[in-house]
Amino acid sequence: MNIPQSSFPRIVIIGGGFGGIALAKKLANKDVQVVLLDKHNYHNFQPLLYQVSTGGLEPDSIAYPIRKVLQGYPNFYFRLAEVVQIDPKHKIISSSIGDISYDYLVVATGSETNYFGNKNIEENSMAMKTIPQSLNLRSLILENFEQALLTDDLHERDALMNFVIVGGGPTGVELAGALAEIKKGILPKDYPDLDTRRAQINLVQGGDRLLPAMSKIASSKAEKFLEKLGVNVWKDIRVTDYDGKHITTDTDISFEAITLVWAAGVQAVRIEGLDVDELLTRGNRLKVNAYNQVIGHEAIFAIGDVAQMETEAYPEGHPMMAQPAIQQGQNLGQNLVRLLDGKPLRPFTYKDKGSMATVGRNKAVADLKRIKFQGVFAWFVWMFVHLFFLIGFRNRVVVFINWVYNYVRFDREARLIIRPFKKQYQSVKNKVADSIAAD
Amino acid sequence: MNIPQSSFPRIVIIGGGFGGIALAKKLANKDVQVVLLDKHNYHNFQPLLYQVSTGGLEPDSIAYPIRKVLQGYPNFYFRLAEVVQIDPKHKIISSSIGDISYDYLVVATGSETNYFGNKNIEENSMAMKTIPQSLNLRSLILENFEQALLTDDLHERDALMNFVIVGGGPTGVELAGALAEIKKGILPKDYPDLDTRRAQINLVQGGDRLLPAMSKIASSKAEKFLEKLGVNVWKDIRVTDYDGKHITTDTDISFEAITLVWAAGVQAVRIEGLDVDELLTRGNRLKVNAYNQVIGHEAIFAIGDVAQMETEAYPEGHPMMAQPAIQQGQNLGQNLVRLLDGKPLRPFTYKDKGSMATVGRNKAVADLKRIKFQGVFAWFVWMFVHLFFLIGFRNRVVVFINWVYNYVRFDREARLIIRPFKKQYQSVKNKVADSIAAD
């Protein structure tokens, strides 16, 4: 890996997400050698992926080069690599670019879509956890309408214009709201020769309310907002199968849709080598102690989505969101320094800053520590909080400009099929050349 | 194709480039039915593609949805389709979405990279004529440096950091300049553990000067600018072969490079059905008369790169650039209306607004009608001209913001490998899912 041996202990961080980046920043200019590994060369701001899928933001504005985050820190080494296995015994990890030894290892690999073992759904549905996935969804949505123009078969056309989103968490709610606004504000103008009133957005939630992690008032308000926007909200329904067109559920309700977005669950990204049963929870998360130390592994830590710290307040571990990851990264950063200084470690305590979800224009719900509110103000708070946590000044400005433009013009201009998703829209001529340009 | 029959004559435009869009705008609300076909759903601003390849601009800011250009015009129909063949006898074209009849046909298919029949170069080199191609190049450049970090073989490392650009036209000059600035300003910060001084940018020109279409003073000044930036400029050298690493030329000079960007020539995109020998020129362009009417085809017109109008001033046809395409599109739009009104057509006269090329920060060359100038002022003029011709208010603002940021910060932040180009950087796990997301 060509990383020089240093007199400082080597801390290897796997993953440049919220947790990994927060940790890395805390280790800047400390007496440690930091090696950050990620399979992408950028940090990606997942909470805004749904806006990429719906043409509201350009993908590059919510991504930030990891090397730029680490610029100027002499003790930092970034490598573009996919970690395959951990060997705790010899303190070595094996990766796509070879083996690397560590003194301390921090697993911050985050989470991936969880299909709960349903292969059909995994193969035929769309996910929205990465930028390429979000761009694929953007292409598919636009291709569906281009194709709907070509068919005289009304059932086919309706299936092309039917968007079924499974999962009533923030991702599902925000995507459903954005699609509803596109249906209302953009489709009639872009497709005057298509009856886009027939387009449908169906949000399917297994539980008895949307945004189950939030307050009841937030849930019911979000539902009201969505219904106002014309989204069909289905509760207490679990999707059981999908063949690319027919969606079956555990009730007698079924859907015909070319597009199913699966936002019904996530699981921690698992790395081989540590998967001792007592360590892994149902969601593949690693059990950690109050210092994010993986149980039974002195030198291995886990933070963020991949870590399950069971506390009184959170018996199932902290929510798999940005905040716990950031705070755990910061706390671990300080603890690693204390550890090397021989000082006692400080247990992690989660400061819940509350949670928010936006449904659409002037429509958001917010549960803050002391106050819960919904509507226009919540929507503005949501925007400024997201701008604040977005990494990079240029990104903030560009995202802000886009939001202002979209708000004033009721528009989302990135309606571009840059990399066609459906085979029939891929140029035969360039297929060979560009088909390798995947992720 | 589900396009309603109308009492108005149907004008089919193939291609939503500069020419096609300019023509379509002139036909707004006229007594014609306009059908615009393009294999992409967006217009792309080719002059700025090199900034996408070098991370200076986000791809979405130089693309614009064609449907938005046509919004609000009741007589417009856009279809996402690749035209396969023209049948002039029956006035029908066949496309990827079926046949369509026309009363008048306008071929505005533009140009593509010309490899002059060299299959090795075509297979192993990078082109920069489309957004996906430019993004592939962006990925490859970044992947090269990530890989250079991993090898101890100095020859291999040098080959990874050697960028050979073939073709001394605007594209080659602008790309070379941008890469040189990245080498100077960004690489040392991003790759402190790599000796990026060894990175090389070689610009190979077959002729005896760069920018042969511009004035001698522009050529020599551009060359001075490039050499000041550390670009190796090679003249009177023709690249003869490339196997992916070894570049041979018609001299005893050769290069070892993993990246060869082929900007040495373009040819008109050819559509079957019209390719009668006397119609086609060396560059596949269709011979047209002063009204852009394809010789021998009353109802078929060609504009822009694909049209060769031989005049005294331009015996080989007009330059294959945006301006002739835009002006021919506008003139043809007016002529088609006159034609339908039974009025005589007006011959096309090209108003040469001059040409410009930018080499880098504060460095550009401009040949305007009455005045030729180089340096800072030319650079500002270049920027404002390009902002002006960029389609879309939001695009202009976002591009402007990026330029200001890049200028003030000596930075280019879109250093993102969103879709890895090299196989080894493509996630095995997502390969199946994402490899279809090509162009």
Automatic annotation (TrEMBL), chains A, B:
Residues 353-407 form the External alternative NADH-ubiquinone oxidoreductase-like C-terminal domain. It catalyses: a quinone + NADH + H(+) = a quinol + NAD(+). It is an enzyme of class 1 (oxidoreductase). Belongs to the NADH dehydrogenase family. Its EC number is 1.6.5.9. Residues 10-329 form the FAD/NAD(P)-binding domain. Pfam families: NDH2_C, Pyr_redox_2. This is NADH:ubiquinone reductase (non-electrogenic). The chain crosses the membrane at residues 376-393. The lineage of its organism: Bacteria, Pseudomonadati, Bacteroidota, Flavobacteriia, Flavobacteriales. Keywords: FAD, Flavoprotein, Membrane, NAD, Oxidoreductase, Transit peptide, Transmembrane, Transmembrane helix.
